[in-house]
Amino acid sequence: MRFSKMFIPTLREVPADADAVSHRLMLRAGYVRQLASGLYIFLPLGWRALNRINAILKKEMESIGAQEISMPILHPAEIWQQTGRWDSIGDEMFRLKDRTGRAMCLGMTHEETMTWLASREIRSYRDLPQIWYQIQTKLRDEARPKSGVLRTREFLMKDSYSFDADEESLEKSYQLHAKAYHKIFQRCGLKFYQVESDPGMMGGVVAHEFMAPSPAGEDEVALCDKCGYAANVELAKSVPSKIKSEDRGFEEVHTPDKRTAQEGDTCHKCGAKLRIEKCIEIGNIFKLGTKYSVPLKAFFLDENGSEKPIIMGSYGIGPARIAAAAIEQNNDKDGIIWPKSLAPFDVEILPLNMNDAKTVETAEKLYKGLKEKGIEVLMDDRNERAGIKFKDADLIGIPAHIILGEKNLKEGLVEIKDRRTKEAVKVKMEEVVERVSVTAPLSS
Amino acid sequence: MRFSKMFIPTLREVPADADAVSHRLMLRAGYVRQLASGLYIFLPLGWRALNRINAILKKEMESIGAQEISMPILHPAEIWQQTGRWDSIGDEMFRLKDRTGRAMCLGMTHEETMTWLASREIRSYRDLPQIWYQIQTKLRDEARPKSGVLRTREFLMKDSYSFDADEESLEKSYQLHAKAYHKIFQRCGLKFYQVESDPGMMGGVVAHEFMAPSPAGEDEVALCDKCGYAANVELAKSVPSKIKSEDRGFEEVHTPDKRTAQEGDTCHKCGAKLRIEKCIEIGNIFKLGTKYSVPLKAFFLDENGSEKPIIMGSYGIGPARIAAAAIEQNNDKDGIIWPKSLAPFDVEILPLNMNDAKTVETAEKLYKGLKEKGIEVLMDDRNERAGIKFKDADLIGIPAHIILGEKNLKEGLVEIKDRRTKEAVKVKMEEVVERVSVTAPLSS
Q1: In angstroms, what is the C-alpha Rg of chain B?
Q2: Band of the pLDDT at B236, cuts 50, 70, 90?
Q3: I need a labelling partner for A309 at 20 to 30 A (CA). Which of A9, A181, B107, B399 fits?
Q4: Which residues on neighbouring strands pair with residue A208, listed in sequence order?
């Protein structure tokens, strides 16, 4: 893409009301804009980054046999009434009436609709197991939207749901997800922890959260560097009576008498000291058991012909949180430093003087050559000063910059600069495409 | 994909309440399910078909320089109040209040939010032209949802918006869209008409609709086979006072005194007889002028430094309507006959006897070989009778079937059957992959 043809409204000023680093940088680099409280517009660069994340999500979901479907955002109240969540969830649920006066809500999650579908379509143990997923908009009326795309009222979510005949099979679906999640976050270049509640407790209620360490995080994780124990501070040290699901946008269970773990507490597994780290929750996995299948009558006939409730799990990942966490973990004073797998482009070409025919000609040649190799290229073809191009390039954070200066070009040389290290190497013109092709990820 | 691992709930029964052929077939072939009135779930096959359509939309939008962004579904009332549509639109708009009592609505279209963004970000003629698009959910509280995915309360829409400095430039953006739309519908294998209102009339208010002929259509088009004149019956013959935009989900203008064109009426252009055909509206393009930019203060500074309103256009396509129209135009008594470009898979392998080792081995080999060529393959690996496999294959409508029967295999032969003509040719095993690769579209 040509910068001149692309809508990238970078800002010189630091937005006053943006608290988190990722929020400030996504605004300044022209990735997002806020339409209203907790409602964000993704601009071309932001949407490209999100789509790269979604492509990774799809690939890894499909590798565990999950099947993509698409559910409505608008739900009839009835199915939420059947599970009891119509009443147990408060103001976080957007509610409305349709033209006939029928009560509806906006999907804050899709356990109800997915279970409804299973109740209609799954009849026999032969239809099991199933994993269905979607990458779909969720709406939650957060009391305090904050930190840009980290806590919003409308957001994309990769949500998957497993349907199994028994606990053993659920355990398989659950572990498939855990492994896929590790692969996803690794591919996204994130530092993260899988944070555990004590498995096997509470009648099969098991949950894990995936946490990306960042000062912008709203969650706190207790970590034991000695034995590797990691848990949400609310669960750490003592076995919880129930799983707190604030990260799912609402609290269903309160455990007000429980003391949260603190810095220096003792690890209940090995006795070492725990440390506390702020984290962004980027994913979660839940064993639901029959919580939804029983009230929504999602039953199946087992091998002996007796009717049993389907055993379920649900699994979420927020793509925008991955983007924000990646920026929180990868930035410097000049801007974003994208992990290669998430960058909206693989490489940015900076022809410094657009009035120099040789510069323009070389830039066009490189642009074409790289695109032919399947590399996603942004070329800053604007008639702007070199200083502005450098500043915008650092802000936007494409991992590799190819700098075309007149002096170097006269010697047949081009500079390749690493956005992270800011190290630049001079490379012969004819070697650039090959060199960049080797290091760039294959475009999705 | 393996049929046994895929969720394809085909139905033997014809659903009682489904009127349109496309609706019946999408239900029977396991493409969609209805959650509630006008609210549809896309199952794996349906979602794959929709994604093929979306890939074509993206490609053609990007070829005219349109940039993909993503807007929220939830909108603050204020911007709709500013354009007057908060009041002029009735029950079709889903309205709700957030937890603070603030009035909100669900986006039935995005002129308001797109113009709001332009008002913030476009300052100078140098920022123009722009074309922004998204493939995003719309919500409209239809009085009478009907015909399956043809008229629903929630649906995907490819909506694009052009921002220009003057009428001449708008005309360019408009024609770029018209050309892209022709290419899109051609690539989707649809018969369609571009239906005109009289351009240049009514202070620049110009609109065209793209209509796919089908008995399931709710629109009627007046066609002149002699001169090629084509118009919505409401516009045909006489110049309309305003554009009726029922297809956009709401009526803003009523022209109750106007008589609609009828079969045998006289073409006002050439004097020949008009014929009337029922059509599905699959797309529309509108010159908006300054209707939204003035109330939302989307102004820019022109070359002389004077402030002017941005000249806008808006352009919509409904992917689910393309899918339904394709089925309406391509089916037989046995099921769907997908155009190659939209089929959820390029080819289906039918190993007739899964208990025969040679059959299974050959099927697996073909499956692997075709996938390596980038061909999307569905393999019916279920342990079902041949009759059931044939019935389901015809119903689902993948364009080419590779049939593996024991008798043919003994002679080293395989049948390739064309879903449309039902003609089968026997081909040597080792030639199958090559033969199918040549005719299958490149996978997106």
Answers
A1: 25
A2: low
A3: A181
A4: A196, A285
> What is the full DSSP assignment across A140-173?
---SS-BTGGGB-SEEEEEEEEEEESSHHHHHHH
Q: What single letter denotes the amino acid at residue A15? A: P
DSSP state of B408: H
B94 and A71 within 8 Å at the Cβ level: the answer is: no
Burial class (CB in 10 A: 0-12, 13-18, 19+), B171: middle
According to the model, what pLDDT value does residue B441 have? 64
d(CA A130, CA A147): 36
Query: Scanning the structure block, which residue is given the tokens 């998957």?
Result: A160
Prediction ipTM score: 0.92
Prior bond to B44 cis, omega within 30?
no
Identify the three-state secondary structure at position A41: strand
β-partners of residue A314 are A161, A286
- A21-331 — its CATH code? 3.30.930.10
Identical topology for domains B21-331 and B345-439: no
Pairing of strands B347-351, B400-404: parallel
Q: Which residues of A touch B6 (CB under 8 A)?
A: 67
Supply B57's token pair.
Answer: 């939309």
Ordered DSSP codes for A319-348: HHHHHHHHHHHSEETTEE---TTT-SSSEE
CA–CA gap between residue A211 and residue A41 (Å, rounded): 25
Check: CB of residue A20 under 8 Å from CB of residue A328.
yes
Closest CA to A8 of A392, A404, A397: A392
Mean pLDDT, range B83-88, rounded to an integer: 94
Chain B closest-CA separation from residue A193 CA (Å): 30
Q: What is the pLDDT of residues A304-336, one digit of tens each?
A: 999 999 999 999 999 999 999 999 999 999 999
Chain A: closest CA distance from residue B139 (Å): 8
A135, pLDDT greater than 80: yes
Within 10 angstroms of residue A218's Cβ, the number of other Cβ atoms is 16
pTM higher than 0.90, yes or no? Answer: yes
Mean pLDDT of B13-18: 82
Residues in B closer than 8 angstroms to A73, CB to CB, are: 73, 137, 139, 154
Say which CATH class B345-439 falls into. Answer: alpha beta
pLDDT digits (tens, 9 = 90+) for A254-274: 444 456 888 888 888 888 888
Q: Determine the Cα–Cα distance for residues A31 and A43; give it in Å rounded to an integer.
A: 5
- Three-state SS at A223: strand
Phi, psi of A351 (to 5 degrees): -75, 115
Average pLDDT over residues B130-158: 96
Half-sphere exposure of B87 (CA within 13 A, CB side): 4
| A208 min Cα distance to partner chain B (Å) | 27
Domain residue extents for chain A: 21-331, 345-439
Q: Over 50: is that where the pLDDT of A229 sits?
A: yes
Q: Is A82 helix (H, G, I), strand (E, B) or coil?
A: helix
